[in-house]
Amino acid sequence: MTEAQGCGGDEVGGDFGGADEAGTRVHNRLTDSTVHGAVVQAGRADIVLRATEPVEPAVPVTVAPPLGLRDTSRPLRGRADALARLEAAAPAGDRLLVLCGMGGCGKTTLALELAARRTEAGCRVWWVEARNGPALEAALRAVARQAGAAAEELERGDTADVLWSHLDRLDAPWLLVVDNADDPALLDGPGALNAGTGWIRPATGAGTVLVTTRESTPATWGPAARLHPLQPLTGERLAAAARILRDHAPDTAGTEAEAHALAARLGGLPLALRLAGTYLTEAGRTPAPFRAPGTPTTYADYRRAWEDGPRGLDPAHVLPRTWAMSLDLLDQRGHAHARGLLELIASFADADLPYTLLLTPDRLADAGPLATLDGPALWQHLTALAALGLIDLPDPAPDTLPVLRMHPLVRDASRTAGAGRTALRLLVVAALAEETGAPEDAEFGRVWRLLSPHVLDGFHRVDTGSLDDEDFLEITDAVDLAVRHLWVGGLLTQARAEYEAVLALERERVDDTHPDLLVTRRHFARVLRDLGEFEAARAELEEVLAIECERAGETHPGALNARHDLALVLAATGESEAARAAFEAVLAARRAAFGDAHPFTLATRHELAQILHDQGELAAARAEFEAILAVRDAASGRNHPGTLVTWHRLALVLRDLGEAEAARAEFEAILAARRGGLGEDAPESPADFAKIAQLLYDLGELEEARAAYELALANRKERSETHPDTLVIRHNLAVVRLTLGELEAALAELKAVVAHERERWGDTHLAGLPARRSLALALLGAGERQAARAELEAILRIQHERLGEDHPYTRAAREDLAGARHVPEGTA
Fold first, then answer.
1. Sheet containing 207-213: order of strands
2. Are 586 and 602 contacting, i.e. CB atoms less than 8 angstroms apart?
3. Which residues, including other chains, have CB under 8 Å from residue 234's CB and lie 6 or more apart?
4. Nearest-angstrom CA–CA distance, 83 and 320
5. How far apart are CA 193 and CA 210, in angstroms?
6. CB within 8 A of 156, min separation 6: which ones?
7. Of the candidates 206, 505, 461, 439, which has an alpha carbon nearest to the alpha carbon of residue 347?
8. CA 504 to CA 98: how far, in whole Å?
9. Exposure of 460 in the CB half-sphere (CA atoms within 13 A)
10. Which of 282, 437, 466, 724 has the most CB atoms within 10 Å of its CB?
11. pLDDT at residue 631, rounded to an integer
12. Is the pLDDT of residue 313 over 60?
């Protein structure tokens, strides 16, 4: 990983999220402190916004039942008794139903039929996929929100308890379907599934939970669960199996008796029946002169082809043999590489695969026999696989990358070790390609949303010990990019775990001074910083900086990047002077190396201008922001996220300089630009909503500001209610409520925020003063003059000691105290 590659969002400024946009922070003109989040002021222009760029959400989910997958022309066959048992189970008191059976036996189809009937009866139905942990947790959080949970309840660490508390309080009937829970360990969450303390629990009240899974061990699910085994359609239900076959095959395929015989040969497995019927339909569409000799076109032909192999019906081998016959058909049609392509596709993760990024002729140039395929031939192979149901090629939505999907059972049966190595190589090449872009750049967010799960899956499945150093380091470069996508998406806990895994392997392979290891450590520190673990982040960066300076000198890009990141941590913890000195040192070196207009230089100039603003040097801050804005505007346009940040900060300086009309005009223009950027697919980031809320407050649109701050809280992802970012948003919302006259609610929230900030910062830290000042103003509004005066006296004393008598913030605190002395005790 080169240092330029490793710099990520921190070093490329507004173009890729920027050092200033890497974490959400605010600076208060009453202090020289830096606090995470976005702040508004009460009664004067005291508080300056510092907030992150919009980020792409990592795990978009829907919990609506996929009723569109039901085909009414092909009704559910042979499952009337199973459906009746499920429908009768809830009234009988069974509230955790486990529909278990082998893959392909129709569990999801049956669950979908139950969901459709419950929906038609007016029941609330949620549908959750349980194939991977992050998506499962995101979906269950969505269920909790729809069941009435407030955003702050979901961030306290007891999310599973909150979910079930709200579900159990619902009066109307509801059904929660948890589909594809083949790894029950994912359902444990913070507790244990079989103890009733996991993510999934037996429902009470009006609800029912239905889980579909291959796992049929009763002890796994606990004593409260009722297992409903689902078997293939054999014996008396074989007629229904034959009917499924006939639903998918052409009328010319044969008689009902022949369909019955083939259904018996296929073991009555619904998925195998569908694939066999689809095979016969496709074979029948091929004109006779173009068919290979012996191609089955009837039920009888298909059954005889099965007889050529080993006798006996082993359900564990039904599906692989069915797919093998489909691949034989494709081979006969001239798609000689269909099997190899299917094996390659199966080697990627169980997620939407952006095939136009990975399965192109140039990417496959080193992929063995597949290298002989040109574009048209590749497309013919893909569409041929889709025609036989081996993959899905959905029509892409406008302005999205095309993706393909594969049933997990097909994937399981088709994976090979050799294809896995090829798939990982393709992922590394795509991830490191220039046209893939950086995860921090909003333009490439959708690309990384698709690539990231595949890169991480490949990394966790590869035997890194078998790789040479060059291949290993290229893979970790790609993983770094994938984890940066998690970081910009706010999935900080997962990002931390992934970086810890990478660091453990890198430390085994390279020495402590290797550039790649140092970059990984720096990016890991960035995640720690955004998790609010400032001391750990600082310690990590100080070690990296010392190694970089000793290794290559203080002006080497690696050392400058580490010093810049360390300055961000210093700023976040209120060490303004130390942060300023560090930024000035980095700026001098970057100017010498890159010039004034380079993105790295702009990022540092932006941070330094913020500190100038915070320290009351308004004219200097204005000049610097105007210069930065001109460069970013020319390079990226006025509506680029990085340009918008600089523009907003300049408007805040204008406001603090007393140029109210000019500032208001800028606020209105910025608000229009930001609202225009929040389209249907825009990320719902707390920073984005907080920026809009700040603008609305500055424009006096208080109700809209309140709504925007509430959205910021509701979309804060993994940040807890006591995270610095969250506390600032809570502070802001309380100030808006105070301004709206909601004194009691504002006072209670401000007291809570101040208590949390005192616990984090202590009594004399500058970072805690903004909320304490707001609390003092609220106390005055409540008629508690003595308590308000005591708070304001403490603020003045701290600022006098830390900032000096003539500092603008000290003078503002003195004016606040003078005003409080003229308010009689008990006067609201």
1. 124-129, 174-179, 207-213, 96-100, 226-229
2. no
3. 241, 264, 267, 268
4. 28
5. 14
6. 162, 720, 721
7. 461
8. 39
9. 15
10. 724
11. 93
12. no
Query: Which residue type does 462 have?
Result: V
User: Cα angle at 653 between 489 and 685, to 5 degrees?
Assistant: 15
User: Do the bridges between strand 96-100 and strand 47-48 make them parallel or antiparallel, or are there none, so unpaired?
Assistant: unpaired
Dig out the tokens for 341 from the structure: 């392509």
Q: Please give the C-alpha separations between residue 486 and each of 107, 450, 452, 502, 591, in angstroms, as whole numbers.
A: 33, 12, 8, 14, 31
Tokens of 714: 């509701």
Query: Which has the closest alpha carbon to 680: 352, 353, 400?
Result: 400
The predicted model gives 159-175 an average pLDDT of 93
Residue that wins the pLDDT comparison between 29 and 361: 361
> pLDDT tens for residues 1-36?
544 444 433 333 333 233 333 333 333 333 333 333
Q: How far is CA 181 from CA 82, 129, 213, 349, 515, in A?
A: 19, 8, 5, 16, 41
The answer to whether 29 and 45 have CB atoms below 8 angstroms apart is yes
Distance between CA atoms of residues 121 and 773, nearest Å: 55
Instruction: Judge contact between 32 and 809, C-beta under 8 A.
Output: yes
Lowest mean pLDDT among 46-50, 141-145, 316-320, 533-537: 46-50
Tens digits of residue pLDDT in 740-759: 999 999 999 999 989 988 88
In our burial notation (b when 16+ CB lie closer than 10 A, e otherwise), range 99-134 reads bbbbbbbbbbbbbbbbbbebeeeebbbbbbbbbbbb
Q: Which two tokens stand for residue 686?
A: 């707390």
Query: Are 613 and 653 in contact, with CB atoms under 8 Å apart?
Result: yes
Question: In this structure, which amino acid lies at residue 199?
Answer: W
Return the SS3 of 810: helix
pLDDT tens for residues 756-812?
888 877 788 777 888 899 998 889 888 888 888 898 898 888 888 876 777 667 888
DSSP calls for 209-240 = EEEEES---HHHH-TT-EEEE---S-GGGHHH
Q: Which residue has the higher pLDDT, 217 or 777?
A: 777
For residue 27, what pLDDT is reported?
36
